[in-house]
Amino acid sequence: MSRNEARKALEERLGHRFADIKLLERALTHITALPGDQRRDSYQRLEFLGDRVLGLAVSDMLVTAFPKADEGELSRRLAGLVRAETCAEIAIDLDVGPAIRMGAGEAQSGGRRKKAILADICEAIIGAVFIDAGFEAAREVVARFWRDRMEASGKPPRDAKTALQEWAQGRGLAIPVYQETSRTGPDHNPMFRVSVTVDGLAEAEGQGRSKRIAEQFAAEAMLTREGVWKAKEL
């Protein structure tokens, strides 16, 4: 299948026909496919926009679906639904890999299967739909691919930081200490890595688009490693 055929098939799976096909083409263009002076034409700016559109669309869905949930529960549900792993899963469901435009070296190293790239492109596609047809069209795409995951989430996700603190105190240990260990990516779209330490235990790490989310994932990682939680409980 050619990239052009893959792109047309992707439009069908999305349920959105682009009025400006160049928007979809840009959403599918990795930075390695472009010379240095044209790299603003990669998916990165659309990813920045799509991340915000996705957050708003999913937040709107959550407020409607869970009218009795408080802000904390809604925030935890949102973090799970917009995390990079979820976006990568949806990109795989959409089979975006064959449609991605990237440099030969990146392609040969398995770039079309890298979850970080797939997650970014998933958000870029949402941004492209938003520019092409507005928020309602973008929200329809989000609902199509995120609603089942939202409804399957079942009981409210637990607050990992609170759970870790309660577990540590129950064992007579000091409260967990969180520390930002790195911040990568551009200022408009950073990725934070945070470590958590509890006396007598090896540290655990988590990463996310905000320090708060990274702290939750670090706490989740420690709870899972210590056998307090099963994997994917958050």
Could you explain how this protein is built, in words?
With 234 residues, this protein is mostly helical. Helix content is 56%, strand content 9%. A three-stranded antiparallel β-sheet has the order 1-2-3. It starts with a helix and ends in a 9-residue tail after the last helix.
Assembly form of the protein: single chain
Output the helix-strand order. HHHHHHHHHEEEH
Mean pLDDT: 89
| Rg value | 19 Å
Structure, briefly:
With 234 residues, the chain is mainly alpha-helical.
Topology diagram in text:
Blueprint: H1 3-14, H2 21-27, H3 44-65, H4 71-82, H5 84-94, H6 104-108, H7 115-133, H8 135-151, H9 160-170, E1 177-184, E2 191-197, E3 204-208, H10 211-225
Antiparallel strand pairs: 1-2, 2-3
Helix pairs in contact: 2-7, 3-4, 3-7, 3-8, 5-7, 7-8, 9-10
Which key terms come to mind for this protein?
3-stranded antiparallel beta sheet; 234 residues; 10 helices; mainly alpha; globular; 3 strands
